[in-house]
Amino acid sequence: MSTEHTRNADTGDGGNRFVYVTAALAALNGLLFGFDTGVISGAFLYIQDAFDMSSLLWISTSSAMIEGLVVSGALVGAAFGAAVGGNLADRWGRRRLILVGALVFFLGSLTMAVAPTLEILIAGRILDGIAIGFASIVGPLYISEISPPKIRGSLVSLNQLAVTTGILASYFVNYAFADTGQWRWMLGAGMLPALVLLVGMLFMPESPRWLIDKGREADAKEVLSRTRSESRIRAELREIKETKEIEAEGLSELIEPWVRPALIVGIGLAAFQQVTGINTVIYYAPTIFESTGFGNSASILATVGVGVVNVVMTVVAVLLMDRVGRRPLLLVGLGGMILTLVGLGAAFFLPGLSGVVGWAALGSLMLYVAFFAIGLGPVFWLLISEIYPLKVRGSAMGVVTVVNWVANLLVAQTFLQLVGAIGEHGTFWLYAALSVAALVFTYFLVPETKGRSLEEIEADLRQSAVGGSSTAIAAEPTEDGVE
Ligand code: BGC
């Protein structure tokens, strides 16, 4: 990223430093999201030895059902958290929801860490899931609304970088406690970032855009003055207010026809982000590696490799997001996912999955994760924080994010059955076919938002509903995106 690109022309580095610090702190939402979804696979191995897995609330059940509840309880909680969290973000404000979410994260992790019974453990897991649902919306949303347009893509992508770092950290924590089987420490470890987020956020401001939406202009001005010059604040305030006034005329409802294309884009990307298979690799990597002929410890090492590739390539995405734009990254990422999924399926299809073919499978899998990490991983969360009108931004993100969590659950529940029914090769080829659909969908429907202010994006959307395609947002960005 060029210096000119990163330096805030208005307030010098000081203003940007404040935005960077605030964004990095808010990205702890992503860290908790990644860590808490990743840690359970390791912890569950020991949980099943610690409790009687044959009954729940004195009712006898199968251990598979209990495993489903413990492992997927968080996904169900996350879908619920997303369903209510978006609306809460619009009503309570972004900052307050982050504070509440951090508290719920803390309580959920604490409950799991000290759970005397399986029932309490599951309750903690669901609570934790609700916090994950909140975090998945409000992290990107808050960062998007405090960021200057020129660096918004990189800053919001920091949240996805934190998700991947959280997943990697969960692999290490699982590994570190594996010998001693201290699953309570594994699950309790999430309390630490939750506490940092809770305390840190007390010192951070509310989103200026939400403040204006609630008529608190003076407060909004004060927040903007920390990162923008006087003239820039005036222009930005004017623009946000004008947008709000148009919305007040009744154009802003979620069901308004002009918002529909953006909802279709969000829902489509939400589903495609999951049904193209990423979490089968993130959650089942060791199982996949073992079936390619790697031994136990080699599989664990390869899994850590997956986590590292995911983090490193997300760093690349952070650096490129505001330079090359969202669409090119998404299209290249999807193209790469298609090729590597076809390769992965082929490696499983060939007889004798060892030697060269085993390595080819490993290479394809790593490259598949790399292509996800530069495209669909960060771009989905970024775009849904950009393309909705201010008044319903949280609620719209909520709708879209529920789809993401439900699709996540669906893939997690069907992966092993699919492998049983159509084999590993068939399953990966199915994900390849769905990636082709995602590529076509992106090419025709997904807009470019690089360099545009959130208000310009909203105006473009309204305009294109009148007489153009939704990719009309790709129009030349203004110099600073606010005037
Ligand atoms: C997805 C998660 C996934 C993660 C992997 C996120 O963007 O929403 O489901 O586990 O990326 O890096």
Characteristic key phrases:
483 residues; mainly alpha; Growth Hormone, Chain: A; 2 domains; two-stranded antiparallel sheet; disordered N terminus; disordered C terminus; binds beta-D-glucopyranose
Topology, element by element:
Elements: H1 3-6, H2 12-26, H3 28-50, E1 55-56, E2 59-60, H4 63-92, H5 94-114, H6 118-146, H7 152-178, H8 183-188, H9 191-202, H10 208-213, H11 217-224, H12 230-251, H13 260-275, H14 278-291, H15 296-324, H16 326-349, H17 355-374, H18 376-384, H19 393-445, H20 454-467
Antiparallel strand pairs: 1-2
Kindly summarize this structure in a few lines:
With 483 residues, the chain is mostly helical. The protein is built from 20 helices and two strands.
Strand content: under 5%
Main sheet attributes: strand count, strand direction, barrel closure: 2 strands, antiparallel
Which consecutive residue ranges, at least 5 long each, have pLDDT under 50? Answer: 1-12, 469-483
Number of domains: 2
CATH H-level superfamily title of the largest domain? MFS general substrate transporter like domains
CATH class type of the largest domain: Mainly Alpha
| CATH architecture classification of the largest domain | Up-down Bundle
Q: Order of strands across the widest beta sheet? A: 1-2
**Portion of residues within helices:** over 70%
Helical element count? 20
Q: From the helix content, strand content and strand pairing, which structural class follows? A: mainly alpha
The overall pLDDT average reads: 88
First-to-last CA distance: 23 Å
Kindly state the number of beta strands: 2
Task: Find the CATH topology of the largest domain.
Answer: Growth Hormone, Chain: A
Order of helices and strands: HHHEEHHHHHHHHHHHHHHHHH
Radius of gyration: 22 Å
Bound molecules: beta-D-glucopyranose
Envelope shape: globular
